[in-house]
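Progress report, Aim 2. The chain analyzed during this reporting quarter is listed below.
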Amino acid sequence: MRETDFIGSFAKGLKVIEAFGDASPRLSIADVARLTGLDRATARRCLLTLHELGYADYDGKFFSLTPRILRLGHAYLSATPLPQIIQPFLDRLSEEVGQSASASVLDGAEVVYVARASQRRVMSVNLMPGSRLPAYCASMGRVLLAALAGDEARQLIEASDRRAYTPFTRTEPDVLMDEIERVRRQGFAVIDQELELGLRSIAVPLANARGKVVAALNIGAPAAQVTPETMAERYLPPLQAIAQQLRPLLP
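Predicted structure tokens for the chain:
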């Protein structure tokens, strides 16, 4: 790619869109400038353009995204066959084990949910396709990081905002890399209340017929129902069975 091929204004507009989130649904021009590192004039032009195109509301001080922004995410979910392929298997798995099951892909240092079958709400966050979680402390994230080369996984971990969500969250890069190596050896990851108190989860990689890991599959369960030691005993066989069935179907 040549330098003249890069459209800086387009990149800045995308950065402004990404500034909005769960913790920042309404932002002023000053807020966006601070979160994105853009100057106020550029942030203002991007926000007003989004408003003019119907992607943002503006009340005179604060901007907020409109449902029209979902067109951008829907384009990915519609274009990739992963959700359509995985969802029926996910529904069956969730019914079989009586717990919520999810599938996700890696996007930088985060996992993005592409499919989900929910039996009950285990987390305080309402997860759905398009939801994002930090990879370093999520079971699917650790499985997907384990599928990368060691240097690449470390770079993503070090680039993460590694905050402790609970007293059990591991945040030190060396400790996380040791855990990633263990996940790589055993072929699955178990998370014990590192993302949210009261939640345990187990994940396995989803590989295609060539053996390339393209996604991850997990089951989440209330900590009161299952111990960390029995997570693998109870849920690993059905997870591996679904992963094996999906292997010839995944792109």
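The chain has two domains: 3-69, 80-249. The beta strands are 56-58, 63-65, 100-107, 110-117, 132-134, 189-192, 199-207, 213-222. These observations will guide the mutagenesis work planned for the next reporting period.
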